[in-house]
Amino acid sequence: MAVVRARAALAQAELELAKVESSALIARREWKGLAMDNPATDKNEKPNPLVLYEPQIKKARADVAAAGAALNQAELDLQRTRIYAPFDCRVRSERVEAGQYVRAGSSVAVLAGTETAEIVVPLSLEELQWLRIPRQGAEDKGSPATVKITVGRQSFSRQGRVVRSLGEVDPKGRMARVVVAVDDPYYLNTRRNNNEPDLEMGMFVEVTFYGKVLSGVFPVPANALRENNTVWVVNGEDRLNIRPVTVVRRKQESVIISDGLKEGERLVLTSISGAAEGMKLRLLDEGEGL
Questions:
Q1: How far are the Cα atoms of 31, 41, 59 from residue 46, in angstroms, in the given order?
Q2: Are both 190 and 245 inside the same structural domain?
């Protein structure tokens, strides 16, 4: 509204200037006509400036300049009411209305970046050792991750990467938290495939990490691990061998063993009452655990 009023004031000032200049032109012609009709008039005599509207022209021009300055100031004020974010984003919420006065430091909106989506994943301290987590100032890339989105009966996957750790442990759950970043979550710069949904804020997702690769290890069912980190091995004479092993990682349904087993050895998976070293065993079904 201020810009519209300023433009109207400028147009009015320009109109008044045009009227005054027109009146001044007519007055100059009339003065010259009177001088020619009256021979006694001194040809070198100058007319009064008021007769030729010179002060009126100066005032009208000053009014036009003032109106132009007011319009420039109104346009500058309007430009300053536009808020530009230093990054590509979407507006999550607004806290300002038209015509409202905003003071310096006031919160007017909440923005969400569209270049990268970040997912905070809680992990146990034991699991952190298997991931590559970039440290501040380092150029190492974090472990890759797959973010699974389920919509109805369909599942979609997006590729991400560990970018940092929040550097604190939850005092209640004793879980650390790492951040997984997914580029272009809204497909603004990449092509969307198979009607994939946007990775929107607040969605529930499933994250699979690809950590360090272990060589020379054996994943075995969790129930194969006995007390004191031992396993029951069936030797070549079908006798029980209670063998200590080194467990490098425990999962919900399996454990990973680094030392104590050899490739091709058979493990006892069932419970045996009174198990002892060297006990004679009988296979229930060839090829299956005991």
A1: 10, 11, 21
A2: no
